[in-house]
Design brief:
The chain is an alpha/beta fold. Helix content is about 45%, strand content about 15%. The strands form 3 sheets. The protein has a 7-stranded parallel sheet with strand order 3-2-1-4-5-6-10, with helices on both faces. A 3-stranded mixed sheet has the order 7-9-11. Strands 8-12 form a two-stranded parallel sheet.
Length: about 290
């Protein structure tokens, strides 16, 4: 039995689709199972509730061999530590009590770097990884740079103004990955019963690109001029608060962007194993273009 958390999210639903297609027994934890397609619900066990609740995860992990772990966004949390660590504590206890063997979690790049010491969400995610590993399970942290899919949040600005924004230097080349590739790596690890111990699996996409590179590719795919505009970190934080984030979470996001701007995501050496297939151009054709023109 494989348990999938956050099964309606951007990554979780793609992990779930792969596992169901493979025919393995799957159980999901979902606050609102009705958000899943009826044909998917019919093929999985469902435990309704939050995977931050001890009673819920204890029930869900009973008889489970493996768990896909993803902390859901909590934009109004009091702190990034609360959002990652406090949310994960009940599950770590249930990993022990229910005898879960393997856990695959979604986290970030840059462990062990100087930038990771004050990197907001990233720093908290590394503390979460350590907490999970301390529970005694075998653990694989799927470590990721920024998601290409995050740019969908700016689809309206790209459509109406031909511009997208970030506080990160527009000329800095960074890895970026598609959520479909993250899901593919996670599903492969969940289905593979041969691994043990604690390690990570990076997902770097096929190439490093700057935001100015991305603007050029967007322009070519969309057939209209698109440019990148760097904004100050303080302005970026203010926008996050305006959209409903708590000050602590907005600061966590800002600290993460600052760490990335200082090379956090460039520390992982690229290898054939962590070079995943979906190019930014392909992602623009298949995801961004429909979002802009659909």
């Amino acid at each position: 039995m494989i348990v999938v958390t956050a099964p309606t999210g951007a990554i979780g639903h793609q992990v779930l689709e792969r596992l169901v297609a493979n025919g393995d027994p799957v159980r999901i934890i979902a606050r609102d199972p009705s958000a899943l397609p009826a044909q998917t619900r019919a093929r999985v066990d469902v435990v309704q509730g939050s995977h931050g609740d001890f009673d819920v995860v204890t029930k869900a992990f009973e008889g489970a061999d493996a768990v896909f772990w993803l902390v859901p966004p909590d934009p109004q949390a009091d702190s990034v530590e609360s959002a990652y660590l406090d949310f994960s504590r009940p599950a770590c206890e249930a990993f022990r009590t229910q005898g879960v063997k393997r856990v695959v979690g979604i986290t970030a790049l840059g462990r062990g770097t100087a930038q990771a010491r004050q990197a907001g969400f990233v720093t908290a995610s590394f503390a979460m990884d350590d907490l999970i590993a301390s529970s005694g399970v075998s653990y694989r942290a799927v470590t990721n740079p920024s998601f290409m899919d995050n740019l969908l949040r700016q689809a309206e600005s790209i459509k109406t103004k031909g511009v997208f924004f970030s506080p990160i230097n527009g000329d800095l080349k960074l890895p970026a990955c598609a959520t479909r590739d993250i899901a593919a790596v996670a599903a492969r690890l969940l289905l593979d019963t041969s691994w043990s111990g604690v390690d990570h699996a990076a997902v770097l996409g096929p190439e490093d690109l700057s935001f100015n590179d991305m603007a050029r590719i967007m322009s070519e795919v969309l057939g209209k001029p698109v440019r990148f505009q760097q904004i100050p970190f303080a302005a970026s934080k203010a926008q996050l608060i305006e959209r409903g984030m708590s000050d602590a979470m907005a600061q966590g996001m800002t600290d993460m962007a600052s760490a990335k701007n200082n090379g956090l995501d460039n520390a992982e050496q690229r290898t054939p194993e962590n070079t995943t297939p979906t190019s930014f151009r392909q992602w623009c054709e298949e995801a961004l273009k429909p979002a802009v023109f659909g």
